[in-house]
Design brief:
The protein is an alpha/beta fold and 364 residues long. Helix content is 35%, strand content 18%. Strand 8, helix 8 and strand 9 form a beta-alpha-beta unit. Helix 7 packs across helix 8.
């Protein structure tokens, strides 16, 4: 494939939701094809159905494999030999199976290095469940399939507003059971590394939310802040990572304190995502940090309530593509820099001559 543009693998998601609508709308702008080569994993027939129902003008080319992807075109690969029935706004097992086939085909191609970044359209986490998919969402499945033993971190972002989660898709009553100092430290480390590698922030500042109301009120309404969260912050600070807190989530957001940090680490799903989606859902992006693969998705779900009406906004999906491209470029830059590091340079503190000293060691 003679194409130097970044190749973006795109999974169709739930065919009864707004996935194809936002995909096709995003690429109705020809300028998108100047930025990347899209490869949609799904069904040409289903894509054509959605295009006709919502009168979207986007054209696409049907290809048999990612190697055939054409630059300056929207490319679609058929991921299932079976006919797929579209029932707009309805959760069906058939739609769940179609979403799984697209995702699995895409991840297989990623392992063959046939595309560079992955953008996933929303799935229904219930209908996709099967003997092959028994995970609580995209993040967990992608971590298992292509994580290479690394741990994932869910980050929701819009511009400089970034919210990550210590715990993700688990029941609320299990949060205190799984929340440990070690887990929080692990997530801080992944978050810090991602802010540097993926977003180019040299010395990021991370704020941590408390678990309990009012940060536990000195143990009056919970002691996790004193026994788990604060010790994790102290240890990671000792390792040179700028992390602060724990802050009561309500006052922190209400006062706008989030503007002074590069990232916020919430203890559980709704604690972080409710304020994020309130402020940034229309252009929010879900980014899976910590893994070798660059994967993003729009911040919204299947949106069954408006599926097929032609009113879904493609803004979040378009932003997901932009973020994937930016992260990929940042990783390439960091890889190039780390492959040929500069010799260490420093001023010897005990030398009053202020002469620049060169370390005798070239590489660390």
């Amino acid at each position: 494939m003679e194409n130097n543009k970044i190749r973006v693998g795109i999974t169709q998601g739930d065919i009864n939701g707004v996935g194809y609508e936002v995909i096709l709308k995003a690429f109705s702008d020809p300028a998108m094809l100047d930025l990347c080569t899209p490869i949609i994993y799904g069904s040409p027939k289903v894509a054509a159905y959605h295009r006709k129902v919502m009168n979207i003008s986007t054209n696409f080319s049907i290809i048999n494999s990612a190697e055939e992807a054409l630059p300056e075109r929207v490319n679609i690969i058929n991921c299932s030999a079976e006919e797929q029935k579209v029932e707009l706004s309805k959760p069906t097992t058939e739609a769940g199976h179609a979403a799984f086939c697209a995702l699995e085909t895409a991840l297989s191609d990623y392992k063959k290095k046939l595309f560079d970044v992955l953008v996933t359209a929303p799935i229904n986490k219930y209908t996709i469940q099967s003997d092959d998919f028994h995970f609580s969402g995209h993040t967990e499945y992608i971590e298992e399939r292509v994580g290479e033993g690394r741990k994932a971190l869910m980050i929701l972002l819009r511009d400089d507003f970034r919210v990550a989660l210590v715990t993700g898709h688990i029941p609320v009553n299990e949060i205190p059971k799984v929340l440990t100092k070690e887990l929080i430290m692990e997530k801080i480390e992944i978050f810090h590394r991602s802010l540097k590698q993926d977003f180019g922030i040299d010395n990021p500042r991370i704020a941590l939310f408390a678990l309990n109301p009012h940060a536990g009120d000195e143990g009056l309404i919970g002691d996790e802040e004193q026994t788990i969260i604060a010790p994790a912050i102290k240890e990671m600070t000792g390792r040179g990572i700028q992390c602060f807190g724990p802050y009561p989530a309500d006052g922190f957001m209400g006062a706008g304190t989030y503007r002074y940090f590069d990232g916020i680490l919430a203890m559980y799903h709704d604690q972080g995502l409710i304020p994020f989606k309130t402020l940034a859902m229309s252009e929010g992006v879900n980014f899976t940090a910590g893994l070798p693969i660059v994967r993003t998705s729009p911040a919204h779900g299947t949106a069954y309530d408006i599926a097929g009406k032609g009113i879904a906004s493609e803004s979040s999906f378009r932003q997901a593509i932009y973020v994937a491209l930016d992260v990929y470029r940042n990783r390439c830059i960091e890889k190039e820099i780390s492959a040929h590091p500069l010799r260490k340079q420093y001023y010897e503190k005990r030398d009053d001559s202020d002469k620049l000293k060169l370390d005798s060691v070239d590489d660390e």
